[in-house]
Write the structure tokens for this entry.
Amino acid sequence: MSTRNELGNMDIEALEALYLQYKENPESVEESFRFFFQGFDLAAKHYPAKPQDTGAGVSAKEIAVMNLITGYRRRGHLFTKTNPVRSRRKYSPSLELETFNLSENDLDTQFEAGKEIGIGRATLREIVAHLDETYCKSIGVEYRYMTKPEIVQWLQKKMESARNQESLSKDDKLYILDKLIEASGLEDYMHRKYVGQKRFSLEGSEAIIPALDAIVSHGGQYDVNDIVIGMAHRGRLNVLTNIMRKPYEQVFRGFTAESYDEKIKGDVKYHLGYNNTINYRGRTIAVSLAPNPSHLEAVAPVVEGIAKAKLEHEHDFQYNQVLPILIHGDAAIAGQGVVYETIQFSKLDGYKTGGTIHIVINNQVGFTTNYLQGRSSTYCTDIAKVTQSPVFHVNGDDVEAMVFVAKLALEFRQKFNIDVFIDLLSYRKYGHNEGDEPRFTQPKLYDIIAKHKNPREIYAEKLINQEAITKAEYESRVAAFQSVLDKAYEIANESTCLSIPHFFEEKYKNIRLPKPEDFETVADTKISKETFLDLARRITTLPKEKNFYNKTIRLFAQRAGMIDNDSYDWAMGELMAYTSLAKEMFPVRLSGQDSERGTFSHRHAEIITEDGEEKYFPLKNLGGEHAMVRVYNSPLNEYGILGFEYGYSVANPFALTIWEAQFGDFFNVGQVIVDQYISSAQEKWGIKSGLVMYLPHGYEGQGAEHSSGRIERFLNLCANYNMQVINATTPANHFHAIRRQLHRQIRVPLISFTPKSLLRHPECTSGIADFTEGHFQEIIPDKEVNSLPEVTKLLLCSGKLYYELAAARKEMNARHISIIRIEQLYPFPEKQLRELLKQYNPNVDLVWVQEEPLNMGAGLFMKHQIGDCELRIIARPSSGVTAEGLTALHKINQAEIIKEAME
């Protein structure tokens, strides 16, 4: 039964009761009734009661018109003219007058409801025309699901007062035309000069170029000083040149180059990033386009991390000064889960960047897949509803509409600091790439596209008809731009050697690429005894005026006791690394699931008072001047947050940035970031990063998903000093490894396999001298055996297994066995190991011992590295599973490893 019929069957008392219920709690009333009552309230605002009206002072027709207005605001986006090459799907109920209990007989009747949309008392015809112009032409808007009235009303006023269009001067129109000439002209030129080569053309979606230009050029009016862009390959070359101002000849040379001017592997031209500082209409603005892999949307969290670092360290947390822009494809934004992860953390304190402008290049096809096969949602942008962000759907053929929406989106973001989405409905002139045949799968669509004029031609005809420009003048502008490209083409062909500008080159001017000697010399990471003791006392002292949980008080008392006993556990070693760096003015950022307390309850970087009302941060109370130490609990995801922290580390090489997995096994959810950025960005793009990954690792009978951080996967990716992989066994060595990240002239990602059981192991401690006089040890020699030449069996191992082997040796009094700890697995400390092995009998039985199955862990890597030495491996049998499911089986297999090592 329709709402109208249900209301008609209600007596006045029931209707009044339902209305009162709605006023008290709108969500408790069925949506269709809310829709009616909203119209009722809006109508009642605009004119006084009259004797002939109903009891509330509102005529039924006025209510109907108010319902009509609400209908357009809520559902007008379903009935727009936003698709340039396809007919829109049909939706019901429609916006026909009859839907709202109105008819054509009412069109010339005047209604007070016109005041609601800013046109005063007006005829129904005028009201409908105004609403249709605003909500159902080239722009469709979704925003009425937003629950903050001030935001909804601001948008309504902005859109309805202007009818979602802007009055442009002749010069403004010609400027937009020039941007389209550049966008289309570049694509035409590359299509002719580099026949059949992939460039992932923007043709059909060129309106994004004047839109981006509008955001950049108008950003200064809203205090934007820094823009960070992330996008996939579609249209990237156009954005690089026509927005980022990368010289055309550099892009052209990417088609013909035969070598690089540096010893790097490089990457395809449509993955490269770029930084520039541009004078846009009299204002200088920094613009960065982050490099990206082919893994669609992987760049999204990286961009947010870059923006966050810039906000905190360059712009004093002023959200309006840094603007992230993410450019998506329609299939990717709907299909890639990392988009949801990125949007979901956009309002969280540790990750928010003050809102992102999302622009979707919606060519309505995902490679070959029709959009109806690519998503269940109505729109590809429906994920925007997660954060109650508005969505503007725009016809890609209407460039003025696109520019208007871009400016409105910018103003909205700067005012409310939340995300905003622009869905650019367009098409793709060719297949997925220029060598692909789209008619295999989309024959009808591509028949239409073949006959369809591009946005440049459409807009030029419009301006010619408006007499803003003549056809001859238009053709002259096109020819002039072609001449610019011809000159760039000549310059490009002068060399076959391609230069890839380093990303954030200015930030890294005193930081170089790593060399072998960086890992053979000692980095000075020790701190003074006085500094150590002062910081240790500060972070183990709780304020007396606050009431804490008894266990918290006991925990901090135990930590304070470590000072007196000169025996510091893993947590203290870790926290001392952070605080000492902070005192040296290096900011520290640690983020991960449960990282504030620590998955294994060891860190307690924040503690809560007994009443749960207040938090205390020991690491923020270090005395005197110091940089900040920030520890954040992340959302329950890995891909997005790992990408975010990577981006953060790239943008601030003088901060310690750490991502911590809840268990090491879980990093594989973020494997894309490891493969496409952390391990490879240095060789592909010349990007440097000092990111630290904490991966809790160790076999303690917790099953397949809580034992292994997959050491073998990282070692398989290691080459050319692209990463450091460690499995440290002492708090002091961990301390020095962390500090070493900022005390060398290199920035290399550090993969640290951190302990679980060792966090409370009585033997896993360090004395103050280890921190104040020591340094990072790639290898820890055996100090328990006095006569090394008499050793007949030499065990090599890493991580917590050392303590089990040492305990077994002690119990058996096996003095013929020596144990060396390989703390750094990569870069492999070959020189240090060779020197150490010289102290042993040349015929010593050399054995690598590991907990992992033979096909996992570091065993095969060690065998390859040691090479000419005959190395035996003791391990669990090869398996497709990392560990046993039963604790009893774990104990049996672990005992077998220890037994074999001791035999």
Notes: The chain has a mean pLDDT of 91. The radius of gyration is 33 Å. The chain has 31 helices and 28 strands.
